[in-house]
Give the backbone structure.
Amino acid sequence: MHMPTITVLDGNTTNPGDLAWDELANLGTLTVYDRTPQDKVVERAAGADIVLTNKTVLDAETLAQLPRLRCISVLATGYNIVDLQAAKAHGITVCNVKGYASSAVAQHVFAFLLEFMNGISRHNRHVQEGGWAASPDFSYTLFPTRELAGKTLGIYGFGKIGQQVAVLGQAFGMKVVAHSNHPPSDTWPGVTFFTFEEMLKTSDVVTLHAPLSAQNEGIINQHTLSLMKASALLINTGRGGLVNEPDLKWALENDVIAGAGLDVLSAEPPASGNILTGIKNCLITPHNAWATKESRQRLLHESAGNVRAFLAGIPVNLVQ
C-alpha cells in the first residue's frame, strides 16, 4: 500500500497541545485539524485513506463523497456519529476505543460527591473572603458536612465505568447497589442488584453510567425523581439525554432531591441560559470527566493501535 494518508477531523478535545501525535504520524502522512465544521468535512477528508473523528459527523451523504476512505477510527467509545450502514456499503472499516476513561470518569463522580459532602470550594471561598479571620471560633462549617461512609450508592449501568465507581464507593465505606440490563454473570462482591425503582428508593446517591438508548431516554424524570430520597444526590457523567432537564429543574427547585452533579447536558455545548444553570445545588462541568491527561494519552495510543492493526490487515476494536 502507498504511504497512507491519515486525517484527524477534530483533534483538539483529545489533544489540546499537551500530548504528541507522533505515534499516528509514524504510520502515514498525518494532518490534524483542531475542529472541522460540517461543511468542510468532505473537503478535508477527500484525500484520506483513514479518518479519525470524535464528534464530527460522518453521515451517508458525506461518506458517499469520500471514495478513497477505507477506515474510520472514532476517538471515543460512542460511534453514533458514523452511519454504519453507509460505511459498510462503501467497504469502510469502523473501529472505536473502549475503557480508556473508566478511572477518570469514576474519579469525577467522586469529585462531585466530595464537593457536595465537604464543600471544599465554598469553604475556601469563605476563608479567602475573610470569613475565618472574622470568626470567633477556630472551626466552623457553612453547612453540615457529611460522610460518604455508610451511605448507599446506587449505580445505573454496570459496565467498566460503573464497576470502577463501585470499587471507589466501597473504598469510601459505602453500601453499593446497582441496576443493569446486563448484570455480571457472577455476583459482584459486595454489590446488590435491584430493580431500577428499588435502587432509586434506597440510594443516597444515584449515578448514571448506562449508554443512552431509545428505551432509557429521559429515564430520570418527574416520576423517577419523586421516588428518590429528599436528601439524595443525582450524578450524571453518562449522557445528557438520560435526564429530563425541565423535570430535574423542578426537582431541585422544590427540594424533591438535594442536589445534582452533571458533566453532560441534552445539548453540548448548551445554549446560553440552559435551564439548569444558576440553580441551587446543581454543579455542572463541561463534559470533561473523561478528559484527564492520562485518559487522553490512552485514547491516542489505542487509536494509533487501531490504525496500525488496520494497515496490517488485522483490524481490531471493530464496531460492525
